[in-house]
Amino acid sequence: MVFKLGLAIASRATYTSKSLQLSRHCSSFPKTDNTFANGIQNDNKSLDFDFHHLFLSCPNAHFAKRLHGLLVLTGEAHNIFFSTRLLNLYSHLGDVSSSYLAFGQIRKKNVFTWNSMISGFVRNACFVEAVDCYYQLLGSSGIRPDSFTFPGVLKACVDLNDGRKVHCWVFKLGFGLDLFISASLIHMYTRFGLVGDARKVFDEMPVRDLGSWNAMISGFSQNGESAGALRVFEEMKLVGVKMDTVTVSSVLPIFGPLNDHVGGMLIHCSVVKHGFESDVFVSNALINMYAKLNNLRAARRVFDQMMVRDLVSWNSVIAAYEQHFEPHVALKLFLKMKSIGFQPDRLTIISLASVAAQCGSGHNGRSIHGFTIRRSWIAEDTIIENALVDMYAKLGHVEPALKVFEGMTRKDVISWNTLITGYAQNGLASDAIEVYDRMPGFGDIVPDQGTIVSILPAYSHVGALRKGMGTHGRAIKLGLHVDIFVGTCLIDLYAKCGELVEATSLFQEVPRRSSVPWNAIISGHGIHGHGDKSLELFKEMQDEEVEPDFVTFISVLSACSHSGLVEHGRHYFKLMQEKYGIKPILKHYGCMVDLLGRAGHLDAAYEFIKEMPFQPDSSIWGALLAACRIHGNVELGKVASNQLFVVDSENVGYYVLLSNIYANIGKWDGVDEVRSLANDRGLRKTPGWSSIEVNNRVNVFYTGNQSHPLSEEVYKELEVLLTKMKSIGYVPDYSFVLQDVEEDEKERILLSHSERLAIAFGIISTPHKAAIRIFKNLRVCGDCHNATKFISKIVDREIIVRDSNRFHHFRDGRCSCGDYW
DNA sequence: ATAGGGTTAG
What we know:
Layout: H1 2-11, H2 17-25, H3 29-46, H4 51-57, H5 61-73, H6 80-92, H7 96-105, H8 111-123, H9 127-139, H10 149-156, H11 160-172, H12 179-191, H13 195-203, H14 210-222, H15 226-238, H16 245-251, H17 255-258, H18 261-274, H19 280-292, H20 296-305, H21 311-323, H22 327-339, H23 346-359, H24 362-374, H25 382-394, H26 398-406, H27 413-425, H28 429-438, H29 449-462, H30 465-477, H31 484-496, H32 500-509, H33 515-527, H34 531-543, H35 550-563, H36 566-578, H37 586-598, H38 602-610, H39 618-631, H40 634-647, H41 652-664, H42 668-680, E1 689-694, E2 697-702, H43 711-727, H44 743-751, H45 754-765, E3 772-776, H46 782-795, E4 799-802, E5 807-811, E6 814-815
Parallel strand pairs: 3-4
Antiparallel strand pairs: 1-2, 1-3, 4-5, 5-6
This protein binds one DNA strand through helix 6, helix 8, helix 10, helix 12 and helix 14.
GO molecular function, one term: RNA binding
Domain DYW: 729-821
Organism: Stephania cephalantha
């Protein structure tokens, strides 16, 4: 029975890829091995072979070699008919070199031979060789290419010049009207992005068959011209050409980019109507379409209903889950895929790299890297290497990311963007800036939207307003400033550098139908302590019917917490769930704990943590601990730190906070205890630093550091200021000094806090009355905050301090935060 | 004996 099936496939004749595909899917293939072997065995005695039959049932390259031997043995090797079939057989079985060897042995080649060789090369993706073969054919006397030659050659053209030359020959030999060739020409031109030339070929066709329509549709869709593809598709339906599975799999990819749910589903309906679901290409395209339309369930349903799945099906469904941040489902599917015998390919690996990053699994990440090395995909596949750089960066492993990047032979814009983003997202803004400055900016590597949105947050992070403005100019030159993401990053930059007015005016210019720019401007006002303005903007957003997302509520809630708007915060936390159906994530809870804690509702904050639906992490307990520091609650502070020393025992910040609480009430044994705890764990305090941009140069000051060229003058200035400050009522608050030392010493310690060094430097190195902008990596110290108020009055300057939390705008002896932060 | 147009990505 099975045997008959094998023969039936074979007897429908010819080694078209379709029949081979079918026979590969036929799990009973080994039986036909026997057919072949028996055929040889039986006929060997009489030396009378049915070569026809043997060709048709030859199962693999090994038997092809035996067949080859038999041909030689029986003197049939020079039969052009058989030898051409032999080279064809080899190429179908994936053995191009044997195919080419057989080709070389044929002394008198005819067009069939040449055509077979060319298409054999193409089938095995040896495009350069195929084109070469075509040129040899042109050069051999007495033989002309025929209509069968061109489709293969056109597919092989990796160079546009070759493509155009072949097109000329097509004209010269009078094949301009051949349908197969026309479709191939259309395909060739669209491969080089020349949709116009393709369209010209298409328009000049007096008759069009389905193949040329399909070529035109896919030509548009693959060049990102979804609307164009849709137009051709509609046109085709209008003239009454019936679509087939190829049409369907060519149009399906456009509905994702067009965000056209209805259109996509309509096609899905006709797929069902025509029974196209059984086509693997069609189902795969459906999975991808639904994934891009964010309809993960529909994508999964298509996948589950498939009878036959191929590697693309698995890759598609894995990528779908990966892109919807369900790495564990993706991983499970991958294991399943492997267990039924599918080997991962490059696309699987690209998804898996992201899956590993999302799981935070460094172990998986390294195995993926190892796998690509074993397959020698590394150093030759830019996309995979970019994926690896991205993976390592997201895992927080910056050094391996850099190593992969440096080892790349072909870096493109995305490689650079990925590395810049990688540094920026790991808090290494200055490294990000360094990489950006190193970026060539010519050739193929021209900064694009991705570059701008990766570097701007780095500038925002260190408050490098001047450099950021330079990039703003570059974005305008590149015409990228109209882009909504670039615009949003610029809003964020100006807001984070204290230029709220500039940020607001940019916001007015940016298209605001999406929540993205709104989120930026809301949080911008929030960090400046203008909570009321943030809420006003949120109302405006609702009035304009812009759908808020989870980021919007992080902005809103943190704005509430910066301004002490407790009741508003509670209200919006509820609203977000009840009206907008947004499930709060850890960050929202963090904002709420911060909000309640800072406002002094410490017990409420603690209750809130206890009622959280998931495990609180260090950010939650950290918020509670910080609140305990402000309100001097030792008991709860200890509870919070005990949790913190478990979940994030490596972070010194929390040890410092707790010892701060003890120092505040003069409990020096507590301070000592915490310090020795930190010492035992080998932890050292994160050095605090502050920076100030003067004359387009960033000056960095570390606490107590005297290495700055002007540090002597800086300390002199601070001494002068201190006397003046004291005369108008400044009293140092020694509770911010963690060392149990004499008061003189404490005063000196406070004086050498990095923010004060930076401010004093600003005073002596910028023009009279110019505003001073300081950036501090940690939170500003309470005594420095108080001192800065006095300084702003004495020197009559605006002093803007941005710390890791928010802005402090000092003017005339007051701070914009109203001492609430 | 030889031929076209199809799905997935950083």
